[in-house]
Amino acid sequence: MGGYVGRRPARHAFDLRGRVSAMTTEERRQLSDAPVPNYHLSERQLERMYYYMRLSRSLNERMMALQRQGRAAFVIAGAGQEAAQVGAAMALRPGVDWLAPYYRDLGMNIVLGMTAREAMLNELAKADDPNSFGRQMPAHWGSVSRKIVTQSSVVATQLLHATGIALGAKMRNDPIVVLTCCGEGSTSRGDFHEALNFAAIHKLPVIFYVQNNGYAISEPTVKEMPVEHVADRGQAYGIRGQVVDGMDVVAVYQTLRPAVELTRRGNGPFLIEAKCYRLWAHSSDDDDTRYRPRKELEEWALKDPVVVFRQRLLEDGMFAEEELAEIDELVTQEVRDAVEWAQQMPDPKPEDALGYVYREVQ
């Protein structure tokens, strides 16, 4: 999965093919799989959490740099929402459960198996992009093998798709969970309410996960809805609603994990709201200085989930500085390799535009 397999980073050597090669057995030091007090996660899981969050942020940073250089057309990032995404996705069973994401969910895709190279193929709209073969806009994720449902540019449609998948699973007695995501702005659309209503009536195994990052493009939450929490809206449909600190990856996991297992046992659906913050502009085409106070952004930047989680791991003695620095360096090399490799890959041919649209006649 990606370039890192979850042992002490100092015990690995990174090769530029996107994998980590283990050193000799004698030199390898395994991490504990036992839950750590106050975390309810193992050392191995905590290490992976940091890796996934760091990789997601680094990829977004490099994508934005490419866009500013004129090498990429568009970027819509999840900076500031890494904890909300990684913590939630790690509560799922990869290859078993389904994900119907929204465009900022790079972190979730990484947890479920997307590599840095694949992410860059998508950003650069290359012919080998596994998400859409260069047909979709960047950040329109999809993977059949990973059970990640492709989406459109129309927000909230994925909520209905997730509800349909959950209905099919219930009819087949298939013990899976469907996690579907959106921003709080999407909860003003009819698709959101239709999906919640249908899921509640049929008690479907679906979790509606709202990443409330404070803004629907330029509109703050107070101008989007009259209630304090999106999760409060679940009461109207008889759905249990929960609110979690979306800047705390451990809290997100501890909230999603039991909800996932309850849903798997037939006790869904759930509506969970992760309170987070969008640290960057809405997209590479947006000027957030026109609507967002500078002081507000500076205050939230102090709560950067990647920085805060790193500091927590150090202060709690979970990892030494050199161990986390090794992961940082690994991620830097992995992203550098992904960019260099993806830029050399072929672009789609004009005649490929109709591929996967009409049936091919031999």
Provide a short characterization of the protein structure.
Helix content is 38%, strand content 11%. Helix 1 crosses helix 10 and helix 5 packs parallel to helix 6.
Describe the structure.
This protein has 362 residues and is α/β, with parallel strands linked by helices. The chain has a single domain, classed as Thiamin diphosphate (ThDP)-binding fold, Pyr/PP domains (Rossmann fold). Helices cover 38% and strands 11% of the residues. It is built from ten helices and nine strands. It has helices at 43-68, 82-89, 106-111, 116-123, 157-171, 190-202, 249-267, 294-301, 305-315, 321-343, and strands spanning 12-15, 19-22, 98-100, 178-183, 206-212, 215-216, 219-220, 240-245, 270-275. The strands form three sheets. Strands 3-4-5-9-8 form a five-stranded parallel beta sheet, with helices on both faces. It has a two-stranded antiparallel ribbon with strand order 1-2. α1 packs antiparallel against α9 and α5 packs parallel to α6 (190-202). The longest helix is centred in the first third of the chain and has 26 residues, at 43-68.
Helix content: 25-40%
Number of helical segments?
Answer: 10
CATH superfamily: Thiamin diphosphate (ThDP)-binding fold, Pyr/PP domains
Secondary-structure-based class equals alpha/beta
Oligomeric description of these chains: single chain
**Biggest β-sheet, characterized?**
5 strands, parallel
* Overall morphology: globular
Name the strands of the widest sheet in spatial order: 3-4-5-9-8
- Tally of extended strands? 9
* CATH topology term: Rossmann fold
CATH architecture: 3-Layer(aba) Sandwich
Backbone CA Rg: 20 Å
Unreliable runs: 1-28
